[in-house]
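Q: I'm writing a short explainer about Phosphoribosylpyrophosphate synthetase for a general audience and would like to include a description of its predicted shape. Could you first generate the structure from this sequence?
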Amino acid sequence: MQDKEEERSLVNVENKLNKDGFTQDFNVVDGRLQTIGNDSNKSYAPDEVTIVDFYRFEGESNPDDMSILYAIEANDGVKGTISSAYGVYADTETDEFLKQVEDLGKNLMKGHK
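A: Of course. Here's the predicted structure. Afterward I'll give you a sentence or two in plain language.
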């Protein structure tokens, strides 16, 4: 039943991030980070966002179940999350965007409150 525990831990992290103001869901479209949902549609270039924190989740029974949840803050104050999977489930466009953000020298601000 390890998978259920992993799911619960992901839900717990998402709930904590929501309480900390990371309420927007993001995805990557055409090389830009975009908001998802009922908020006004906004998009950001890699130099307009910062990775504030990240959480790694590993599936014990299946290595292909690994993923990372990123907490991201845009330069206009919008805060949200995006997840990226490893292996065969990886989204190349999302991975490329996040790598560009990291390559721009954005420092992780661990321990946000």
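A: For your explainer, you could say: The radius of gyration is 14 Å.
Q: Perfect, that's easy to follow.
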